[in-house]
Specification:
mainly alpha; 136 residues; single chain; 70% helix; 0% strand
């Protein structure tokens, strides 16, 4: 039960951070990606701030034998850079660039009933379903 409560608190904190940083505004995201036009570098500062907070915490946590709010750590087990990873990253980047949304901010937009977020989430779920169907 503690792990679920902690996940909810973490999710809400993440959503607030996305709102405060402007990551839920597709126009701000596409302006960040438009390096040859009216470039808005503010999201680079958001990313830098996230790295400054995340990196030292990960270094500390990696030395622990078990997490505080779960029974085990859920570290990535796949370390190889393969075609699936590169293709997935490319599709993610293209979708992010065209829509101005990635999954986290889109979920926040969905909670606020933003029409573009609803369309994005529907398309994302359709894509996930298509990939799962193709794997079979």
């Amino acid at each position: 039960m503690k792990s679920i409560a902690f996940a909810v608190v973490t999710g809400v904190l993440f959503a607030v951070g996305l709102l405060v940083s402007g990551m839920t505004e597709p126009a701000k995201v596409t302006a960040f990606l438009d390096v040859t036009g009216n470039w808005d570098p503010t999201l680079a500062f958001v990313m830098g701030g996230a790295i400054l907070v995340h990196a030292p915490i990960v270094r500390l946590v990696r030395h622990r034998t078990h997490p505080i709010f779960d029974v085990r750590f859920h570290w990535p087990i796949q370390h190889a850079i393969d075609v699936r990873l590169v293709a997935g990253a490319a599709i993610f980047g293209i979708g992010w660039g065209l829509s101005g949304y990635c999954p986290g901010p889109a979920l926040v937009g969905l909670a606020g009933a933003a029409p573009a977020a609803v369309v994005f989430i529907a398309a994302m779920l359709a894509g996930i379903g298509f990939v799962r169907l193709m794997r079979r």
